[in-house]
Structures are given as C-alpha cells and as structure tokens.
C-alpha cells in the first residue's frame, strides 16, 4: 500500500480504537483485484482497510478516465483548429480580392477586373440590368466613378464557394459635379483551379 494510505489508515484506527498495540497481528486477503488488510487490536476485532482500497481503486479509475477525456478532447480539437485557420485564410484572400476590385474599378483597370471575374459572370447592376462579364467591363470603362470603397464586409465559406455581403460607397463626377452613391452588395466567389473568381454579383442602391 502507498505510504499516504498507510498514514491515513493509522489515523483512522487511532480515532476509533486508540493506537495500535505493538505486535498486533496483520490479516491480509485478496479478493480479485481488491486487497484487504486488517490489523487486529487488543479487543480481538479489527478495522479493515477495504474502504481505503476501494477509494484508491475508484480514484485511479476516475483519474484515468479524466486523462482519457482530456486527451480525446484535445485530439478532437486539432482538426477543428486546422479547419478554422484554413477558413480564416480563405476569408482574408476573398477580402483582398474585394479590395482589388474596388481599386481596379475606380482606376478603370479592366485587366485586373478581367482576372478576378469568371467568364460566365452574372452581374445585376444597381439599376436592375443584367450584365455579362463583357458588358460589365464596358460599363466600368465608361462609368463616371473615380473611387469605390467598402464600409463593411462579411465572408461566409461553403466548401468551394464564398459569399460576401457588405455596403459600398462610390464617388464620381457627373456633368462636372461630384456624385456620391451608396449601396448594398452580394458577391459570390467560386474556387477554380486553386484560384478564386467572382461568378455572380448584385448591387442594390441605398436610397435613404
């Protein structure tokens, strides 16, 4: 028996019968995996250590179960942590592409826009018109817009698809006067050959 258990047992005996007399006989027994140790006192009866052995066995089982649960929870959390970091990386990349879109549209960089749009792009403009990729690029080229900024964006990842929602602000000139328009948008991105391209987009003006 572990020394700490023996010390507890001695204190337990003392509190009931007084100190163990010298030369008290020690009776031991083995029942399965449970060890029973009993010291007989002068009165001829003893207080067995069954309770202590059972407590020890229960504590060992409890500690082993606790360690197994902690290890299992840690192992289960590893794939989730990896998934979270991968999702965060994709979200950052999509947000960067959205900013590239804004800068390219403001500077009329059609080459940059062409690289981030899928050839089958479906675009619903703020006036409700349905545009193809070529039609949208042509409209960007002639639009009196000099700067486009996004004020808030949220990215949701669905396997190989990402959906971005947010608001934008466009500054330009019309008839020699500055214009300011605000709107809400939703952009859908898809992974194509390890690259992300925009496959669908819609802009809705905010009138209030």
Overview of the molecule:
The termini are far apart. A hairpin with a 5-residue loop joins strand 4 and strand 5 (130-131). Helix 2 (50-107) packs antiparallel against helix 3 (110-116). The model is unreliable at 1-24 and 29-54 (pLDDT under 50). The protein is built from four helices and nine strands, in the order αβββααββαββββ. The radius of gyration is 38 Å and the shape is elongated. By secondary structure, the protein is α+β, with helices and mostly antiparallel strands. The strands form two sheets. It has a six-stranded mixed sheet with strand order 5-4-9-8-7-6.
Largest sheet: 6 strands, mixed
The arrangement of helices and strands along the chain is HEEEHHEEHEEEE
* Quantity of strands, as a count: 9
Described by its quaternary structure, the protein is single chain
Summarize model confidence as the mean pLDDT. Answer: 76
Query: Per the principal axes of the C-alpha atoms, what is the gross shape?
Result: elongated
Secondary structure category: alpha+beta
Number of helices: 4
State the strand order across the main sheet: 5-4-9-8-7-6
Radius of gyration: 38 Å
* Strand residues, percent: 35-45%
N-C termini distance: 81 Å
Any key phrases for this structure?
208 residues; alpha+beta; six-stranded mixed beta sheet; three-stranded antiparallel beta sheet; 4 helices; 43% helix; 39% strand; elongated; disordered N terminus
